[in-house]
């Protein structure tokens, strides 16, 4: 089993993560992790913080000579902004009452956090609930992503809508219809999206979205959106139907839903399918050479909690950022009076970043299930197990059913 923990406050000294359970001899470079950290910082509509930070990972353990040792990998990402918060974030000095935050923002973790943990300063909720933590997740997810590449599995994403502005062409539908080239891989999709400032696949769409974000900014408001995360090359048989906590789709949904501000997740066009006849939903099975496939991929690559071998397609919805420059109503906890919610530096839109984080979380879950199925203490051993299973799959089915 692989696992990871992250630690760090948004304006503390640094973020760290410990990644454990990957086999030995996996090649990984710092530049590979840094590329994905940089991708998380992109996007039109981000706030001032992204101008301060230039996220990069320092590898503290678990890698020698460019290869994993099988031991825990620890990574550190410095918070450049920390030096501006030395007083407020000091680990020992009591914080002054002047810097205390007492007005919770609706939609953020402010009020629930102080209620649950009995804090006397909302800052204590803000720091760890901040989406800054996701930088550490992307670092951890990069290890998973690199591991998956060894098996030809690629992960990518694109933005489908921001503030309800969709493209004329429905790219998701192309994926659901399985109208993709044979050599299509999810990373090439991500690279195309990365060319756009809002990670969309169409230039006209980009401009409409930027106009919408500009309008939101002008009003002191924020926007959310929807995005698609895809994984290609995933073999048949990850996950299981035998128990709720072994279902591949359930694990993916939980991982994506755990990302800050994500309020909805579907596998394939899940909600739309609920309105259709079964004959319009299910993917017809066909045999091409020594391989079973489906005419369409409305199942989003998962049937019965098990991967089908077709691309995994996840759609997620991110709510608008909770910090509003034109605030809505709240209560000042120091006076218990009705007030405007507190303003604080934030993003106007972070959907493009959210999709990159979702790529990392999807990569993680796939890596986890790949290791559950194929095991191995070295990458060579895992590959042998993987190849043994995938190469003999059709032959086994054929033999089992031959009359
Ligand atoms: C973020 C860092 C944060 C926010 C944002 C994401 O930095 P700061 O709070 O210093 O501006 O920009 O987090 C939120 C929008 C949030 O609500 O927590 C980052 O590194 O992604």
Provide the fold topology.
Blueprint: E1 3-7, E2 14-20, H1 30-40, H2 49-52, E3 57-61, E4 63-64, E5 67-68, E6 73-78, H3 110-117, H4 123-129, H5 134-149, E7 154-162, E8 165-166, H6 171-176, H7 186-194, H8 203-218, E9 225-232, H9 248-257, E10 262-267, H10 270-273, E11 285-287, E12 292-294, E13 302-303, E14 306-307, E15 312-318, E16 329-332, E17 337-340, H11 351-374, H12 379-401
Antiparallel strand pairs: 1-2, 2-6, 3-6, 4-5, 7-8, 7-9, 9-15, 10-15, 11-12, 13-14, 16-17
Bound molecules: ligand EPS.
Briefly note the CATH topology name: Chorismate synthase, AroC fold
Number of strands: 17
Average pLDDT confidence is 97
Q: What is the overall shape?
A: globular
């Amino acid at each position: 089993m692989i696992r990871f923990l992250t630690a760090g406050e948004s304006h503390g000294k640094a973020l760290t993560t410990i990644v454990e359970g990957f086999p030995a001899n996996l090649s990984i470079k710092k530049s590979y992790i840094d590329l994905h950290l940089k991708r998380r910082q992109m996007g039109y509509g981000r706030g001032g913080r992204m101008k301060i930070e230039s996220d990069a990972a320092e590898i503290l353990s678990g890698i020698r000579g460019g290869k994993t040792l099988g031991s825990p990998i620890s990574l550190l990402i410095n918070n450049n902004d920390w030096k501006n918060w030395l007083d407020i974030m000091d680990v020992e000095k009591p914080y002054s009452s002047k810097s205390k935050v007492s007005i919770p923002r609706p939609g953020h973790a402010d009020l629930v956090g102080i209620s649950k943990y009995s804090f006397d300063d909302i800052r204590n909720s803000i720091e760890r609930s901040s989406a800054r933590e996701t930088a550490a997740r992307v670092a951890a997810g990069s290890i998973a992503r690199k591991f998956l590449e060894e098996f030809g599995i690629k992960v990518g994403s694109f933005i489908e809508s921001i503030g309800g502005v969709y493209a004329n062409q429905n790219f998701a539908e192309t994926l659901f219809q399985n109208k993709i080239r044979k050599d299509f891989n999810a990373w090439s999709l991500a690279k195309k999206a990365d060319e756009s400032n809002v990670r969309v696949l169409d230039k006209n769409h980009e401009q409409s979205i930027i106009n919408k974000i500009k309008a939101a900014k002008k009003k002191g408001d924020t926007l959310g959106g929807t995005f698609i995360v895809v994984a290609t090359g995933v073999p048949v048989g990850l996950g299981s139907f035998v128990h709720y906590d072994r279902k591949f789709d359930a694990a993916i949904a939980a991982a994506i839903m755990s990302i800050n501000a994500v309020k909805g997740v579907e596998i394939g066009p899940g909600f739309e399918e609920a309105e259709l006849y079964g004959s319009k939903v299910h993917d017809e099975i066909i045999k091409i050479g020594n391989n079973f496939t489906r005419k369409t991929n409305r199942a989003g690559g998962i049937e019965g909690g098990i991967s089908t071998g077709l691309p995994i397609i996840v759609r997620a919805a991110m709510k608008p950022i909770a910090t509003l420059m034109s605030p809505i109503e709240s209560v000042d906890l120091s006076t218990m009076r009705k007030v405007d919610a507190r303003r604080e530096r934030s993003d106007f839109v972070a959907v493009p970043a959210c999709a990159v984080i979702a790529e990392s979380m999807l990569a993680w879950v796939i890596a986890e299930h790949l290791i559950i199925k194929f095991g191995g203490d070295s990458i060579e051993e895992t590959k042998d197990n993987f190849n043994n299973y995938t190469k003999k799959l059709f032959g086994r089915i054929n033999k089992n059913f031959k009359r």
